[in-house]
Design brief:
- The protein has helices at residues 2-110, 115-127, 157-163, 173-181; strands spanning 137-141, 146-151, 166-167.
- The protein has 191 residues and is mainly α.
- Strands 1-2-3 form a three-stranded antiparallel β-sheet.
Length: 191
């Protein structure tokens, strides 16, 4: 009987073992299906998150582009403002020079200085208004219809000698033509 009982237990154990293996196989399949389901769920979450990250990156890129565009406009505006400020400083400098030159001319007139000295100061005042400009003052001798160089502080001496005493006429330099026609004559290059 003890052998029979032991055989029954062994048989039950063998059956139980098979059942246990079958149960373990069943549990493993359930876990495997659950794992796959969880994996698929995580895959969907990751895909959603990736789409969200791409959308966020697109927004960041668009905003970065907008910021770059604004910075460029601000930089251009700063350049224009700096250029305007430089022009204003230059205009102020010229106005100060003009006022100083006018004061000098008025002082010379008030002191009764000779006309050529006053005209020289006037020519210098005009030259101070623009860099590289040379100014000359010519006086007309009505009787001889000739122009006399009265002031030309920055003119090369040879040019001053060449224009001093020129006759008035339509084709005699810009100053001779201006006197002849009574109209303004602008010359961009004086020979």
């Amino acid at each position: 009987a003890s052998q029979l009982l032991s055989g029954a237990v062994a048989a039950a154990g063998a059956v139980a073992g098979v059942a246990t293996v079958g149960l373990l196989g069943l549990v493993s399949r359930r876990r495997l299906r659950a794992g796959f389901a969880r994996f698929e769920q995580l895959e969907r979450v990751c895909a959603t998150e990736a789409a969200s990250v791409r959308a966020t990156q697109a927004t960041v890129n668009q905003r970065e582009s907008e910021v770059q565009s604004r910075l460029q406009r601000m930089s251009q505006e700063l350049e224009r403002t700096q250029a305007a400020a430089a022009e204003a400083r230059e205009a102020s400098r010229r106005a100060t020079k003009l006022q100083s030159g006018q004061q000098r001319v008025l002082e010379l007139l008030a002191r009764g200085r000779e006309p050529r000295r006053v005209l020289d100061a006037l020519a210098r005042m005009m030259e101070a208004q623009c860099d590289g400009v040379m100014c000359a003052v010519m006086l007309l001798d009505d009787a001889a219809q000739r122009l006399e160089l009265a002031a030309g502080p920055s003119l090369p001496p040879e040019f001053g000698r060449a224009v001093d005493g020129i006759t008035v006429g339509p084709k005699v330099l810009s100053c001779g033509a201006a006197i002849h026609t009574g109209k303004r004559v602008i010359a961009d290059d004086i020979p």
